[in-house]
User: Which sequence fits this backbone?
DNA sequence: CGTACCGTTGAGGTGAGTCAAAGTAAGTGG
DNA sequence: CCACTTACTTTGACTCACCTCAACGGTACG
């Protein structure tokens, strides 16, 4: 896996901070991503908005490229514009353990940034993707100067809109069936297309091995889960293309256990 | 499990905020816990320090009592002064899943506070404990008014000094042996007493069932791990009292896998 | 002395990992 | 266009760590 750094961004931001330049008419065009909605509500002074815009970088990464690496010191805040990024760390057995999937408009790298500690995870591009980068000193400066921005930023982080909330990441002890079904649900919410007849079609952005990695499982186990779901008629797989005739029924696998264990089997 | 609320604190803080009272000479005596070191470095105005002090509550909880519950809205920030608290949530099968152990000077309840969302976990006292409470509006107000405080607070949260970093919580897929050994290491760091001969003695604050809960395992499995460690002479158990003759050797179980998997077996 | 809970041990079942091999898709060069 | 390579996916057989169920010993407490 090759590597591209965002060093230019940091240097540029330092420069801008030192100069104290002011660009009255610049709009934060490049700052899309998850921060966008925040930004709009924050009454940035013109020069700060310009600074933010000027010190922001966008880079492209190929599949397999590393965006940052476990142990690196934090250079700033990352935001995925398109594609899928996987955050992993090396566990006690030196195996890659998935922590979180990051998709369009999700942030990453913030823990390290605010903890002032090295990255605890590596970020690998699971697909080709665009990544937006905000230099550390700029983000921290704005957070200090705009309590509203600070509050919004941390609210977003605490809520963690990303794919992390998914059960398949939080509960590796659940059977693979459930974790995989939950994975499909998350994928469908982000990439699903209605088929009109109540069914949904999803083009999975990643391949089996990566799905396995995300589920903390083996590719073979994923394959078995797939054949099982197909045998039950809950989904039809054609490569990375998944057709789900009745999403509700499929997702009942995920929530169904809850109801069944709580109040007996419901039909 | 019974329940005590901190409602008094919120109300008191509201009152203090409305009145805008000023107590020039009051020191933040009650604000110990993990925030203490932060507080000292923050140049609070006297009235704000007094407000913080006045709106802070300390409560005692018995073993098994619930401090807050999954689904409750956030009332503020909690800090454990003594004892052990376990944060859990109901997983898809309605089983309690441990998220984090919270010990003396650790914070809890902050995610919910900053996300402005209901608590995602329940906090149960594993032992009798003292818990310190800071009302929501006070914390948020101070965070807005003192960027330094805000930054420090979030740095602490991001670093999460608590017991969460432990492998036994983060890596439930590792063998119970390793998770339990890591658990012992964490317990020893916090509760261990040197025995002079290089050995360490730990009085575990919690019982087997709770250990199992923390490890995402069954009490029987914990018992088996214990007998195994005793058979190998790595530790001697007498109820909740553990004697570890050579900590280094025990903890090699935790890190040993790393080395072995990386560069072959070392002797 | 019985009840209740905790902790330990044994027997048996099972989900998922491992290993091995065959099937499939996608490029590559002649 | 076809052989060939390469990587990805699926299936089967086997193994194993942990869970489940059940029984038993120890201790506290009424």
Assistant:
């Amino acid at each position: 896996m090759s590597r591209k750094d965002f060093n230019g961004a940091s240097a540029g931001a330092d420069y801008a901070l030192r100069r104290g330049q002011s660009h009255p008419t610049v709009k934060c065009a490049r700052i899309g991503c998850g921060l966008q909605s925040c930004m709009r509500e924050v009454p940035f002074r013109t020069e700060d908005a310009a600074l933010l815009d000027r010190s922001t970088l966008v880079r492209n990464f190929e599949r397999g490229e590393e965006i940052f690496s476990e142990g690196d010191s934090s250079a700033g805040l990352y935001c995925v514009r398109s594609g899928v990024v996987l955050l992993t760390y090396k566990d006690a057995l030196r195996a890659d353990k998935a922590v979180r999937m990051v998709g369009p408009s999700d942030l990453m790298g913030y823990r390290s940034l605010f903890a002032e500690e090295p990255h605890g995870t590596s970020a690998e591009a699971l697909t080709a993707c665009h990544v937006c980068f905000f230099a550390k000193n700029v983000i921290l400066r704005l957070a200090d100067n705009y309590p509203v921005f600070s509050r919004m930023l941390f609210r977003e982080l605490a809520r963690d809109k990303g794919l992390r909330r998914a059960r398949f990441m939080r509960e590796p002890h659940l059977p693979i069936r459930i974790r995989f079904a939950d994975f499909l649900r998350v994928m469908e919410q982000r990439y699903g297309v209605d088929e009109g007849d109540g069914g949904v079609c999803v083009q999975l952005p990643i391949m089996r091995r990566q799905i396995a990695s995300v589920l903390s499982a083996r590719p073979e186990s994923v394959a078995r889960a797939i054949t099982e779901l197909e045998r039950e008629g809950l989904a039809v797989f054609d490569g990375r293309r998944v057709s789900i005739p009745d999403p509700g029924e499929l997702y009942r696998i995920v929530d169904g256990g809850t109801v069944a264990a709580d109040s007996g089997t419901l039909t």
